[in-house]
Specification:
Elements lengths: L1 H21 L6 E3 L5 E3 L28 H20 L3 E11 L2 H6 L13 E11 L7 H4 L4 E3 L4 E13 L7 E7 L3
Antiparallel strand pairs: 1-2, 3-4, 4-6, 5-6, 6-7
């Protein structure tokens, strides 16, 4: 009798192992109320994305000029760095809005911009930003010169506008720096 029970247990164990071996790893299945097996989608399946819908990410080989999402992100990072370097503790916070990133065609068409001969990882842009001044700042004019309006109620300098060129940083970090920053080319 022990041999029969042991044989049945061995067959059951082998059957369950064979059943488990047929399932794709990482693709679990579920049973619905009717005990029907429902296969779930395997999250590791690579999906083909049409070339027109592909965008690069940081570290990709797509030039920054051809990747507006990454260019906008890098402009915002470089702006934060520029504001920190320029104003230090006098600016408590900043809101940055990238208004325009110039295309290669727009750069070529602009008389002044075309003279800069910007490379594939250099982009011209215009930006609007707001600065939250530290409470101890006394010289508000320093922050509103050329552009900007001080809102006494909120403590923010609003309506600041500038243009600039984002370029790779030859010194490494941050990855990009802003040059030619001002109110006109």
């Amino acid at each position: 009798m022990k041999k029969v029970i042991l044989g049945i247990l061995t067959v059951l164990a082998l059957a369950s192992l064979v059943g488990c071996g047929n399932k794709e790893e990482g693709n679990p299945s579920l049973e619905n109320d009717n005990n029907e097996v429902i296969e779930t989608v395997n999250e590791n399946v690579e999906q083909e994305v049409p070339k027109s819908e592909q965008t690069g990410t940081a570290g990709s080989n797509i030039p920054l000029k051809d990747n507006p999402e990454e260019a906008e992100y890098q402009i915002k990072v470089a702006m934060q760095y520029l504001l920190e370097e320029t104003y230090g503790d006098e600016v408590y916070d900043a809101r940055i809005y990238v208004e325009k990133i110039y295309t290669a065609e727009e750069e070529e068409a602009d008389e002044v911009l075309s003279t800069y001969e910007l490379g594939p990882d250099e982009v011209a842009f215009s930006v609007r930003y707001e600065l939250k001044l530290a409470p101890e700042v006394e010289d508000i004019m320093k922050f509103t010169a050329a552009t900007g309006e001080y809102d006494e109620e909120s403590g923010w300098v609003k309506e600041k506008y500038n243009i600039g060129i984002l370029r790779p940083n030859p010194e490494g970090e941050p990855a990009y720096i802003i040059t030619n920053f001002g109110t006109g080319w």
